[in-house]
Amino acid sequence: MLNLFVCPVCQSPLLPNAKTWQCAGQNLNNQNPNLRQHSFDVAKQGYVNLLPVQHKHSKNPGDTDNAIKARQQFLAKGHYQGFRQSLLDFAKDSLTPIDDFCWLDIGCGEGYYSQKLFEQVFDFAQQNNLNNPTAIALDISKPVVTATAKALKNFTKNQVYSCVASASNVPILSGTVNVISTIFSPILPEEFYRLLAKDGFLLIGKPKANHLFELRQAIFDRVEAHDSQKFVEQLTPLFHLIKEQHCSYQIQLNATELADLLAMTPYAYRAKPEKIQALLSDCEQQGQMIFTVDFLMYLLKKVD
Length: 304
Ligand SMILES: C[S@@+](CC[C@H](N)C(=O)[O-])C[C@H]1O[C@@H](n2cnc3c(N)ncnc32)[C@H](O)[C@@H]1O
Ligand SMILES: [Zn+2]
Description:
Bound molecules: S-adenosylmethionine, zinc ion
Number of domains: 2
Number of strands: 14
Strand order of the largest sheet: 7-10-9-8-11-12-14-13
Order of helices and strands: EEEEEEEHHEHEHEEHEHHEHHHE
Distance between the termini: 26 Å
Strand content: 25-35%
């Protein structure tokens, strides 16, 4: 079995275990070797917190409980299922028939995409008789990862880990990850480059210019198009684009679903509360409203 994890405190190898993960430790002082080891308990929900306090920039980093609940409720209604299926098909090109294949989902949220992406990894490994595939779901928010671990608890026969950690400081050995996915989540080019093995892939899901434009038109005075091309340029010295694909369709939402959608996006903070209220009242009156979802998927490969 490959050693994948490193201790977030002392960077020595970190061994996963059912109850407590323990690092190999560092010698504090060469004259008087004094081994200090660090341990990380597996929470009863099944995740491990690898975010040292010194890496936390706020008390509760990542999404709030409110956003988490809203996203779970919204996703459970199936409005993004069409996108998830497109993403799964799109991702197939990144599956490589090698032993020790490792998939890392960054900013995994409650595991709505991780769950299906990981299933695809393990199915592929089984069909190709590959040894020791691993999938890791990572998010900076502890309440989010608590929900991820719950969503991923059925993978009992597979090597699946749910970790609280920061995307900018991932406690995983350099050059060991074969695919990094980041779906509506942070993109850290240098850190992802470090983590990826030779020929490793980066799978990105992003909103496109038209995404929810009816909603943005209703709550903002000026609607700015998402500039999805800019970040591909920022990635090009380290990654080259293999393919990109567009996925767009319309969804019908009632007022409750619309409220959840608003709470899970950053729009809720930026818009005036009275505009949000007016849109929700309109939706309530009409019973349903139609919105366009517009997504982009990118598959990039690590440059040698
Ligand atoms: C918009 S959500 C997307 C979640 C999930 N991929 C989905 O689409 O359902 C972004 C996620 O990134 C996480 N996040 C934000 N900053 C992060 C960071 N620096 N490191 C790891 N995760 C982060 C948030 O906690 C949140 O769960
Ligand atoms: Zn350590």
